[in-house]
Each structure stands twice: as structure tokens, then as C-alpha cells.
Fold:
Amino acid sequence: MISTSQFDNHPDAESLNAFNEQALPAGEREQILVHLAGCDRCREIVFLARQGAAEPLPQRVMPKRTPSDAKQSRVGSWRWAWIPVAAFAGMITIVVVQHGRRAAEVEVARTSGQALTGSVAVAGKDQLKNSGAGNTRVPGPRSASSKEGSDEALDKIGRGEIAQKKAPVRGAEEPIKQATNALSIPTLPEAEGFKDAREASNKPSVVGGPMMAAQLNQQQAAQQQELSVRQLQAARYSVAGGSAGNADLGAKAKQPAVHGNVVAAPVAPPVQGLTAPTSASAFDAPEEVVPLEKTKTIHLPSGLLALSAATTQGRTVAIDSTGAVFLWESAGTAWSPVARQWTGRAMHVSVRDSSTVSGAVLTAPVSPFELVNDNSQTWTSLDGKAWVPKDSQQK
Amino acid sequence: LKGVDAAPLERTGDELETNNSAGPATIAQSLLDELWHKCRASEWGLERDAFDRILVVAGMSQNFGLSSATVASPRQQEEFFRGIKLADLVLAKACAAGHERAWEHFLELYSQPLTRAAVAISGNETVGRDLVDAFYAELYGLTVRDGERRCPLASYRGRGSLLGWLRTTLAQRHVDHYRRTRREEPLEDSAGREPAAMPASQAPSPLLATAVEHALREQDVEERFLLAAYYLDERTLAQIATVLRVHEATVSRRLRRATDAVRKQVMRNLEKLGMSRRAVEEALGTDPRDVDLKIDLKKLLQSPRLEAFPEGASKERLPEGESTGQELTSKSKAAG
Structure:
């Protein structure tokens, strides 16, 4: 190989370009290659031409940004921020609503559900008679309509409306079911009266809770008193055995009465309650069943009707609509007020059966009274006079 | 159209010289009509009769791609025109003739690509813009030779794309300019400088020089081009592969094969020249750059299992395109 400086003639740009673009025939390409192998100038030209063909990408010319553009850009960058914000707000709303519903349900279970548990189902006396099915059919599981009713009730509470009816709640159903299973009570065909009652209970209603407790007035108390009486009547008819077709059920349903310590429905739950004994004579009965006819007319020393009452071992504790608590002892002749030892407003009193173990009902239980205030706090008492918070007692 | 028949600026070899001695030929009117519509030269304002004249002159100057003794048939004429970049050719000829609308169209098409190519070739934006400005002046026909205005576009024959031709011409101008200006050195720098004498112990063996020269000449032309581009110009495999339109791996494989063949051939040549095996091995230990072959044959020939492409061979080794063959030669000599 010799130096290319000796080359006098070089291929012109046309030929070199054609060589670069592979546009030359084989023979002419060979001649160009021979020249290129010995001519560094033409090799340089060929490589530089290829280098020039690989043009750098043109730089993007960005328009100058004005302050307004920058502001718009900042705004534009937040343009879609409302989506996650709205989603987050929606989630928060759902959580709050669900929490409110759950709290309301728990409140219902604690305040009104226990009373319904003792008296079981709500049904009209006439309907029970007509149906002839004197069983203690309990309301079925909460249906969707019931839940919707609960939602609606929450709305009503929010608007300050007052409850007119009480609906069965989950907390009241479960103990009844357990007792039913323990007593081997077969599931009976649903009587018309109970069906209507259950439908009525599934209708939207106002449930209990702090808000409700704060708004209860005398009229409500009277209505609730009437409702409790109807429940007791239903329970009584259930204990009586109902129709002949349900004789077996009636016999089994009487079993809880053997305990003799609680005035309760045939399918007595572990926690039993009694509403509004009417007079002292009502507690003279050995089985401590309150005469239902007299419950309508019971008047406490405060001049008000009893909102809730429970009796055991010859003692009856009652609460009027203002939250005042009164005690009736079998040896006494009148109601005596009980000193306030709890906070808030007493809403409900019941008798707790502590003898229930693993679903079995034992005899001779010591059943202290149990009082629930409007904050769902519970106090207990053995004699109805001295009350202690339930939590401290457990400790 | 003036200047259509202007000769190329550079003389080419006999084998590359185009034949301008073709006799008068006529082009079928139907072919001209078809090419007129295909070329779409009317969009930038070329008249039909000017278009016809450009085609006739271009075909006759190249004898339609045939040898000088052959008269092109209409079919051969058609094949010729279909084989060239006709639109580019017409535009270049019209520009060379001073057609104003053609120049507008030319600048619209090639102004920016030409500037970018000049910057890429020179490796410097300032130098590139100077280069392209000077090239525009030349294209406009400001260069007068022998009293006649000369336009390089007149030498364009449409064998390749006009843009490629422009880039190649730019590269030519850049290399020529560099070669002219690099010799201009201040007197104070060159004064008192004497060429270093080569030590007698490092003087290349005349037998080795002869053996290497013969070995290289026996190589295939493409292998010689590969060896020269890789070892002399220090081009990367990617650059060589781009020019030859093959894969880098192919270039690497062929280079390794060529170096092995050259080494074996050099040893055979030396033995033919009467050297013993041991003397051959000693001779191969001599730095081949001293043989004035400008080839790094020391590395090439000393190792029997040569790693033909050391690490980093594919890197760009010519910064800003300023290394030319002569520069490399001087470097090699200085290193030797």
C-alpha cells in the first residue's frame, strides 16, 4: 500500500456519493474501492459524508413561557386533582355514615333491644287470638328493608323527628335464637299476626341512641309503655300454649317459668327484662308474673308512667320517663325513690340472669338488676338500692 | 439553459470518466411526457421545454449510461432515466442555469439539511456555518474559471441523491480546506526545527518492507480498504460497517481474517527472500511503522493469536473529524 498523496485524480463527488449510497454497479464499485484503499483523502471524504448524513436531531425549540403560562401550567397540573380528592372525601363520608349506623344499631341493641328480648315479639292481642298460634315466633333476621329502615330512621333522628315504634334489632334476636335451640322448640309456620308484626317491625323506625334519649318526652314514654304492655301480653299468650296445635310448643315454652326467678317470655334469653309492673299485688304471685292488665295503669310516685321495670326476688325496679328510678319491695307498701348513683339518664332496667352457662339455663340464679343510661353505660345492683358500675364490678 | 454542459470540477480517472461523445439522440415524446409528470418540476415553476432540454442534454452527456460507441434505444433511454434521481437532476441543472424558482425550491429543500451536514462534518458549528456559506457562494456560481462562471451543480449527474452529493461535496471542500490550511505554520514555530534522525538500530529491514508490501497487494481490495480504514484512519467498526453497509460483526470477522492472512503471507514472503525462520521472527519484532507503511503491524504481526479488535476499538477515535491520513502518518512517525 502506498501513500495516497501520489493520486493526481480522484473520483468526483458524484462517484463517491454513489459509492456511499450503494448506487454503483459492481465493476465501478470495485474501482472506487481500489482507489479508496490507497487514498486517505477520498476515504476521509467518504467517512465524513457518512458522518454528515447522520445528522443530529434538531433541538426542540420551546416557546418562551410567560408568567401567565406558568400560572396556567400550575393550575393545569392541579386540574385533575379533584378526582382523588373527591374519591377521598367520598370514602370519608361512607366511613362516617357506616360508623353512625353501627353506633345506632349498638345503641338500639342496648337500650330497646333488651326489653324486646324479654317480651319477645310484638303482636296485637287480637291478632294472636285470631291466629291461634300462640307461639313465640321471633322476628327473622334483619332484612334489607330493615336496614333501609334503619337508615331512614337515622335520617329522621337527624331531622329531630321522634320515634313512634321500636324495631327488633339484631342484639335482641340472637339470644332468642339461642334459647330456642336450647329448648328444642321447632320452627312453626308463621302466623298471620306475627307476620304482620314482623313486617311492622321491619318497617323504617327510629332506633334508640343518645340522640333519641335526649329527645324522648312524656308522650313517647306513654307510647312505649303501651308497646311494652302489648309485648307482655304476647308473651303471656305464648306461655299459655296458644292453640291446641301448638300444645307441645306451649309445654316447652313453659319451661323457663320453672326457674321462677324471672318474669320472662317462654323462650327466655339469658338477659331478661320486664317492663312496668302495675302494682304491688302484681308481685305477689309465686311465679312473679306481672298482671298485664295492670301494667297499663301503673303510676310511679313521680306521677309518670313507668318506662322500664324489672323484678326479681320480690323486688321491682322501675324507671319513669324522666329517668327517675323507684324500688318496690315485697315488704313495702309503696314505691321508694332510689338515690341517683349513675351518670346520665336512666333509660332501661333489666334483670341479668347470671346462671346461664354455655346456653344451658340453671336454677337459683342470683340476678342483679341492671340499669342502662342514655350513654349506654351499665350499672348493676343486687337489691335495687345500691348501684355500682358494671365495669368496676367485673374488675 | 446556460452551463448545463459544464464539466465536473475535478477530473476523474479514465475508468470513471463519463462519455460525452455520444451522438445526437432523440427521446420519445411519450417518455418525456411521463417523466415530466413524474418529476413534478412544474410545481416549482419549470417550463416544459426547459425540462425537455435538460433531459436531452443529461442523457446525451452520459450517452444514457452506455459506452460511447453505443446508440441508446428508446428502451435503454427509459431505463437510464428511471435509474437516476431525475427530479434531483432536473433541479440541479435548473439551479446551475440560474433558474430563480429552482433556487427557491432548492433552498427550501436543502438549506437546513446542508447546514446540519456541514456542522456534522466539521464538528464545529462555527466552522460548519462558514463551510456552508462558502459552499453556497460556490453553488451560486460566484467562482469564475477561465472567464466562465462555474457552478458545481452542473456536474451532478443524478447517480445518487442530490443531498448526498451535496454532503460529499461539502466533505471534499472541508478536507481540501484542512489540507491547505494545516500546512500554514508560523515561521517562529518551524524555525530551527530539524527532522529527527532515525536511529540506525531501528531502521526497517528492506526485506520486511518488500514482504509486507507484497502481502498487502495480494489481499482483496475490500480487505485492503478495511485494513486501511481500521489501522490507518483508525475508523471504528461501526463507521466502516456503515460505509460498506454490512454489520459490525462482519467487519470484525473480515478484519481478523485479513490480518491473519497478511501475517502468514509476510512470513512466507520473508522466507522466500532467504530469511531463516528465526530471522523472520526477529524481523516481525521490528516496529512495522518504521517501514513507512503506516500500519500498526507490530501489534498485527507479533501475536499469533491476535486480538484484532481491542477493547474500545469501536469508540470514536477521530475527534471532530480533524484527523487525516497525513496527520496520522506524522503521528506514526513521531511515535516511531
About this structure: Chain B touches chain A through 60 residues (CB under 8 Å). Residues 1-23, 302-336 of chain B have pLDDT under 50 and may be disordered.
